[in-house]
Specification:
heterodimer; A: about 200 residues; 4-stranded antiparallel β-sheet; B: two-stranded parallel sheet; 5 helices
């Protein structure tokens, strides 16, 4: 075997230290190290191991395919999502009612879709956005069912020995939202083509 | 300082008749505007009836609006909801815009909300989809077969390596390098 060919082979085989690897296993690693301490004649496993570079991507592809199949056959069951709405994050599923506090323009009977989705989960899988899941992947629709005011809140200020006392009463506008649908409509890991870039100025 | 806020009735979110699941339905059934025809405190109410009431009624055909003139009494708005609640709003010396605003509020409410404090801002029938978290979630199933007393599990979980282990590691790294050098030759 000449030198160049050998170098080529070595580059394919990544080196990993046996001790390092066992440490990452936690409890098992401790056990292993204690055994090696006790029986010093036992030599740890060979320091070389074959690492398949495509292993992780293959696993990922397999998982994505499974999830896509499950969604295509609509066997994913009940979905929940974490959405960012009016400065707060809500964990929602179908049929939930949530209250948005503060001034918020939508009126009663309006149907709105919630697009800032941080996470979608089913019983078998969880899609975590970085920070948002891909746009168009999840369809979350909600209806505004009520707009009202909160209870009277008291804002009381007092400074001791300064003859200063103020009392204010206020109410916060509240909007009730009914979540109608939480659905995965797009295909996983297959984002739509980026359009509208001709108009954008960079 | 008033203590009325301490004695508010705590409540959870309720929605009448699964409102919004199929479609939204206005929960205000009837509104009665009571006012005086010549008293000054009813001036805003009278102006509202002259200028804005027709538009309001056209916008909301589902609400029945009644008017009840009565002599020398403060104007009020009385609202009746589908769940049987009635709510009074004292409209003394209100301008016509103020009255319109209060009417809009009554229209979008589902019941009399005064004196009720919400305990939670979210209602869900399905609190957990993936199952609630337990201390055993995402743990190694090997722990199920652990036999006690176990010295490994009894002590604190130490992740740091000892100096001896570090030295051993360095020694092994050196050995690997030696092997590599030999093979390269």
């Amino acid at each position: 075997m000449d030198n160049a060919e050998y170098q080529h082979k070595v580059s394919k085989l990544s080196l990993r230290n046996g001790q390092n690897y066992s440490r990452s296993l936690g409890q098992a690693g401790n056990l292993l190290s204690s055994i090696t301490k006790r029986y010093s004649t036992i030599i740890a496993s060979t320091p070389y191991e074959i690492v398949d570079e495509d292993k992780e991507t293959n696993v990922a592809k397999d998982i994505i395919k499974k999830i896509n199949d499950q969604i295509a056959q609509s066997q994913e069951g009940r979905l929940f999502a974490i959405v960012h709405l009016a400065g707060k994050q809500f964990r929602i599923t179908e049929g939930d009612v949530l209250v948005v506090e503060g001034y918020w323009p939508p009126n009663c009977g309006d149907k709105i879709s919630l697009d800032k989705v941080l996470l979608v989960g089913a019983s078998d899988f969880t899609l975590i956005g970085r920070p948002l899941v891909q746009r168009g992947l999840v369809n979350i629709e909600a209806t505004v069912i009520e707009k009202t005011l909160s209870h009277t809140k008291t804002h009381f200020r007092k400074k001791r020995r300064k003859q200063y006392k103020r009392i204010h009463f206020y109410k916060i506008p509240q909007t009730y939202l009914r979540i109608n649908t939480v659905k995965v409509t797009g295909e996983l890991n297959n984002p739509p083509e980026v359009r509208g870039l001709e108009k954008a100025i960079f | 300082m008033s203590n009325s806020h301490l004695f508010l009735k705590p409540a959870f979110i309720t929605t009448p008749g699964q409102n919004g699941v199929g479609r939204y339905f206005c929960q205000l059934q009837r509104v009665v505007l009571k006012f005086c025809k010549n008293n000054g405190s009813s001036r805003g109410m009278r102006e509202f009836i002259e200028n804005k009431l027709i538009d309001f009624v056209k916008e909301t055909p589902e609400v029945a609006v009644y008017m009840k003139p009565r002599r020398h009494r403060t104007p009020i708005i009385r609202a009746e909801y589908l769940n049987g609640d009635t709510q009074w709003v004292n409209a003394r010396n209100f301008t016509e815009d103020e009255i319109l605003k209060w009417l809009q509020l009554l229209k979008t409410q589902s019941s009399d909300k005064t004196g009720i404090r919400l305990r939670k801002l979210l209602h869900t029938d399905h609190p957990s989809v993936q199952g609630p978290w337990t201390p055993y979630t995402f743990r190694d199933p090997k722990l199920n077969l652990a036999e006690f007393p176990s010295p490994e599990l009894a002590g604190p979980h130490v992740v740091e390596t000892t100096a001896t282990e570090e030295l051993l590691e360095m020694y092994k790294n050196q050995q690997i390098e030696d092997v590599n050098e030999k093979r390269a030759e």
